Amino acid sequence: MGAIDAGCLLFFGYPITPQNEIPEYLSKHLPPLGGTFIQAESEIASINLLLGASATGARAMSSSSSPGISLMQEGISYMAGSELPVVIVNISRSGPGLGGISASQGDYFQATRGGGHGDYRMIVLAPSTIQEMYDLTCLAFDLSDKYRNPAMILGDALIGQMKEPLIRQKPEKMDLPPKDWALTGARGRKPNRIKSLYLQEGELTEHNWKLYQKYERMKKEEVRFETVNVEDARFIIVAFGSMARVSKSAMELAREEGMKVGLFRPITLFPYPEKGLYDISKQVKQFLTVELNTGQMVEDVKLSVDRDAQVYFYGKPPGALPPPEEILEEIRKYYK
Amino acid sequence: MELVFKRPECLIDVPFHFCPGCHHGIAHRLVAEAIDHFKIREKTIGVASVGCSVFMYDYFNIDVVEAPHGRASAVASGVKRARKDLIVFTIQGDGDLGAIGIAEGIHTANRGENITLIFANNGIYGMTGGQMAPTTLLGQKTTTSPYGRDFTYDGYPIRMAEMMATLEGSALVARVAVNNAANLMKAKKAVRKAFQMQTEEMGFSFVEILMSCPTNWGLSSLEANRRVEEEMIPYFPLGILKERKMADYL
Predict the structure, then answer these.
(1) What is this model's ipTM?
(2) Does the pLDDT of residue B250 top 60, yes or no?
């Protein structure tokens, strides 16, 4: 729905649980709008159909879940190298391998550390409500166009299959650069080339520095995060996506017991809110990172906070989501 | 004096990097002539595949996007689905289409994508230095089949055109060669037909061109031409395998 409201009329995908709601919805709603839905023969084909569509300057999207996203990494690397704006949704499931279909945050590294080959970054947005699923999808299209870079929505089986109230309000249009690089036919201009192969001496070095500058600009301009009760906090829980919801409940339980606990929720996983965390860590010295994996984002938290801050970790491998009481127990363990 | 033979408008005036005697340059010219013929240069998009054909953007005076290895037909389909008014083609080698990208190729044909796929079949991986391809002939020595391709080890050479012709989605399937003047004229006609069918929205058009690779075959240009005639054509027979006369409608 967010994609359609962002002007995306092209979708390419392949069935995989737990994200089938997205292609099923779009296969119904895109054709009447004059859009195109293709169920491809694989995620490899999906991502390359997306590459081709994006090369024309059109807004296009694909969605999948963890094993399918692994298959897409080749195409994502090519699109990062070719500077093509696309949106990819990962309603992640649990792994490694075929894993299972329960919620997991095991794809944090894959999403934020490249996943594919080469020195590139992808904009990664992590919704924690259905409203954000909509809002961040709209934003992802704008950001990918702004930076000519792939953007990913990293949800999980919980966010992907939940029902919640939604206010469908199209966001204000961002002021975006013209797509003069798009392939539209070389009429009255020199031919455009979209490529990632640079063999001439020095060319690839220059290209990589150019990409680096872009990622640095994202770090300056696009960081987004939410904080709850940090003003008087002595202890901060750091969590994203569905785990931020459980953590929020745990924070409330802790507050009822008189512990001054706050919540820091990164919304952009790349660019990571390093400065936001660092600023807080000048006052607050205790951080508990809560993840639905055995420890991934905690590395970024450790890299972000002031050196004398303590970073604890509570992680759960895929399976049942931990109840807030479990996290509360952890808070009690460390809270000073 | 009247100019009777000139470079197609669609080709940039630079020398090809292809090895002496390689047929790739001829394939480029046939495509360029077809684009010129239909006056579609300004609305044609090329999809560069991985292999010797990747440098398409150095030669064609048109917009070009580069595809990952084997994915050219999927990328071409994506371009076409986004912009049905554009003419989209790709030139894929035998490793690209017959091995790593065979799924994408078959499904592109099966969906009847209205694009043109030129299949450059020289039975070897040219750019990576002469490894065995899915279309390498039995007994043929390559750098990874040093004792000759043996079907008990490596299976058989794949006949892509025959496979494409079985699919309902394909509109034109032809196999041609450019090793002599008579074959070249037929090849020119087939490539032109492929672009014509795309402009008429007839569906997927596929032209396999048997090509020489003198460098990796270890032959002179003339010997390589003879090998196309004597060894390749008997296994990969030439001709129009399928030609749809009317577009499919629901």
Answers:
(1) 0.94
(2) no
